[in-house]
């Protein structure tokens, strides 16, 4: 039996090419169907042509179909991947500018703060409509969310589409590279290593987990030795080097400096520091003393738009033949979602970091807390591996972020402005009621054409 994979948002900046690569090269997916959906006819035509050229070149036997209407191609899909976004940079830019007007800084603008809340309001209704279609057209599908804010989207699917099997992903913590990185970073494995030997892995106790983009490395033991002090020294060294070259990109700028501050504070390392610095109030610029080295910088929407446009130009080159299938196979890499699909369908027994219900893996968090943990996974779904306790301090912050996400999901479904206000004022970086109210009013007005709230 061959797998059918339906990708909704085929022109995705992160996922489009990776899914084509996996479908074209995996022996476990050979002879299956790749159904591509995009509401932009030009983007859809580009991705379908690209996929056909690559799959024909590899002779994998994969059938490529496409439509601007998802219902035409969803039937009997084994996997349905959500990787859509409506006018991504446009609205993240609006979110950033309006939040800035009300004293809130966001370097990513898509997972926490006004940007995360309002992106969820825009995307959740679409995701739940897709889930409803899936329940009718492909009731056995695995609905895999790859749309930010990952946790809020996953919570909405878990709570409000319970009859559809789902989990959520982020492109961070991609295995096996994630574990390999940490072993190389502290010197357990050499830089040239490209795999983690079984004898090394069997001696390793590496605990990473938490709400997506707010995940922490809380334990790092190898062969009876605690490597957290070694990790701290390496982070300190990286932070010192960063002062000389902090970079210009808002998500990358001074990440190790902020990470060191948080490591010193909580005794744990923030593994998604480019986002985590946006989840805490410490780097917003509040208070009398200046933030060192600086408050976080604002998301660069025009810059991201240029990057996304350039990526689509490359897709057009592959589709037209200006770039060859050989170049595609050489230059493109598989990603988290495509590797997970292959492992699930092929029953390969691989382990991945996945966002799903906790199920007692973190023993001092709720059973249904929607968090990112290392999981065993097969066609029965993800099963989080034991983590232990979330350290105090971080535990409270995790719950605050989860409460914000849960309230946001509920507000998106109920279209309740009172719940929206509660979500905004539960959010860890919104610290002023008047500013929060003003931010909500301005965003509802600026984005009324894509929101279901009455003004």
Secondary-structure blueprint of this entry?
Layout: E1 4-8, H1 16-25, E2 33-37, H2 41-58, E3 63-67, E4 79-82, H3 88-101, H4 113-137, E5 142-145, H5 150-160, E6 165-168, H6 177-185, H7 198-201, E7 204-211, E8 214-222, E9 225-226, H8 228-242, H9 255-266, E10 269-270, H10 273-279, H11 301-320, H12 325-331, H13 336-346, E11 351-357, E12 370-378, E13 381-384, H14 394-414, H15 417-426, H16 433-446
Helix pairs in contact: 1-2, 1-13, 2-11, 3-4, 3-11, 3-16, 4-5, 4-14, 5-14, 8-9, 9-10, 14-15, 15-16
Overview of the molecule:
It contains 16 helices and 13 strands. With 455 residues, the chain is α/β, with parallel strands linked by helices. The protein has a domain of 184 residues: AglA-like glucosidase (LDH C-terminal domain-like), CATH 3.90.1820.10. The strands form two sheets. Strands 7, 8, 9, 10, 11, 12 and 13 form a seven-stranded antiparallel beta sheet that branches. The protein has a six-stranded parallel beta sheet with strand order 3-2-1-4-5-6, sandwiched between helices. Strand 12 and strand 13 form a beta hairpin. Helix 3 runs antiparallel to helix 11, helix 4 packs across helix 5 and helix 4 packs across helix 14. The protein is globular.
């Amino acid at each position: 039996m061959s797998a059918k994979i339906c990708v909704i948002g085929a022109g995705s900046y992160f996922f489009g090419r990776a899914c084509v690569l996996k479908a074209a090269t995996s022996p476990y997916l050979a002879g299956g169907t790749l159904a591509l959906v995009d509401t932009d006819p030009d983007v859809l035509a580009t991705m379908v042509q690209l996929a056909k050229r690559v799959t024909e070149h590899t002779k994998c036997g994969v059938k490529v179909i496409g439509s601007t209407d998802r219902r035409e191609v969803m039937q009997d899909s084994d996997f349905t991947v959500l990787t859509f976004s409506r006018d991504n940079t446009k609205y993240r830019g609006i979110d950033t500018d309006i939040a800035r007007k009300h004293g809130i800084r966001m370097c990513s603008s898509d997972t926490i703060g006004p940007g995360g809340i309002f992106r969820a309001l825009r995307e959740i209704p679409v995701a739940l409509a897709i889930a409803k279609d899936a329940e009718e057209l492909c009731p056995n599908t695995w609905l895999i969310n790859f749309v930010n804010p990952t946790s809020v989207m996953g919570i909405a699917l878990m709570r409000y589409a319970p009859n559809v099997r789902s989990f959520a992903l982020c492109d961070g913590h991609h295995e096996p590279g994630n574990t390999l990185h940490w072993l190389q970073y502290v010197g357990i494995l050499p830089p040239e290593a490209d795999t983690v030997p079984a004898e090394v892995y069997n001696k390793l106790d590496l605990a990473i987990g938490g709400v997506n983009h707010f995940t922490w490395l809380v334990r790092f033991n190898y062969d009876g030795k605690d490597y957290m002090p070694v990790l701290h020294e390496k982070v300190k060294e990286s932070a010192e080097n960063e002062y000389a070259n902090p970079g210009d990109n808002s998500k990358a700028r001074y990440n190790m400096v902020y990470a060191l501050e948080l490591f010193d504070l909580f005794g744990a390392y923030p593994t998604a520091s480019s986002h985590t610095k946006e989840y805490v109030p410490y780097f917003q610029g509040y208070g009398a003393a200046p933030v060192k080295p600086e408050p976080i910088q604002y998301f660069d929407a025009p810059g991201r738009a240029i990057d996304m446009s350039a990526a689509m130009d490359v897709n057009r080159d592959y589709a037209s033949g200006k770039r060859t299938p050989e170049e595609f196979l050489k230059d493109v890499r598989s990603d988290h979602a495509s590797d997970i699909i292959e492992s699930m369908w092929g029953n390969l027994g691989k382990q991945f970091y996945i966002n799903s219900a906790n199920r007692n893996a973190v023993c001092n968090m709720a059973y249904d807390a929607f968090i990112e943990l290392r999981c065993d996974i097969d066609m029965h779904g993800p099963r989080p591996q034991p983590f232990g306790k979330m350290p105090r301090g971080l535990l409270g912050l995790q719950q605050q972020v989860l409460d914000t996400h849960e309230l946001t999901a509920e507000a998106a479904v109920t279209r309740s402005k009172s719940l929206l206000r509660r979500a905004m004022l539960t959010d860890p970086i919104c610290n002023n009621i008047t500013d929060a109210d003003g931010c909500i009013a301005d965003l509802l007005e600026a984005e009324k054409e894509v929101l279901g709230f009455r003004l």
